Amino acid sequence: MAENPSRALHKISEIYDRIAFAAVGKYNEFESLRVAGVRLADTRGYSYDRKDVTGRGLANAYAQTLGTIFTENPKPFEVEIVVAEVGESAAEDQMYRLTFDGSVADEHGFVAMGGSAEAITAALSQTYTAGLAFPEALQVAVAAMNAGRSSAEPRPTDGDVSDQDATMPDAGSPIPAGQLEVAVLDRTRNRRLFQRITGDRLEEVLNSQK
């Protein structure tokens, strides 16, 4: 889930059958990484087997790319990304966070990125429990993001997708449903497990726990 008023420029996207990509930072930079990941996954899946395309493999490729840019270019990418893969069971799920210098961390349960990451992580550490159904998990995530808004610094207009297409709500105010980008990897679906939750469906899920 991401705070994003744009309906055209996504922070959360599908990479391959069971794999999703999420990012914060400069849109043009993380979009180029997303496209490269899709191409790598398609090539590997076509040349070998679809099962050979893994979240870990993509995370390693992104780490190498970001590390090379960090060491060889005068300016590193201003991005932070997460690669997530859903397994046959929750025990097989994988989630990796990568920072601008190519550092990669194996995350479990939840991960937060961006300027309010520490506050959101603190809130989630108090409210998140493994095995939550999707509506409950979404409510927990929304509450954590709202808790983190009061600590957020003013956003610079640096090309981040969040600065485009709409005015963001004031820090400390609840995030409207229309400014949430929500997607899920649903292991019960056939092959392509990525699904966006938008419009009436999003409103229904958000209101189901009230």
From TrEMBL:
Residues 147-179 are annotated as: Disordered. Transmembrane segments: none annotated. Gene3D superfamilies: Glutamine Phosphoribosylpyrophosphate, subunit 1, domain 1 (3.60.20.10). SUPFAM superfamilies: N-terminal nucleophile aminohydrolases (Ntn hydrolases) (SSF56235). Keywords: Cytoplasm, Proteasome. One of its GO terms (cellular component) is proteasome core complex, alpha-subunit complex. InterPro entries: Ntn_hydrolases_N, Proteasome_alpha-type, Proteasome_asu_bac, Proteasome_sua/b. This is Unannotated protein. It comes from freshwater metagenome. The lineage of its organism: unclassified sequences, metagenomes, ecological metagenomes.
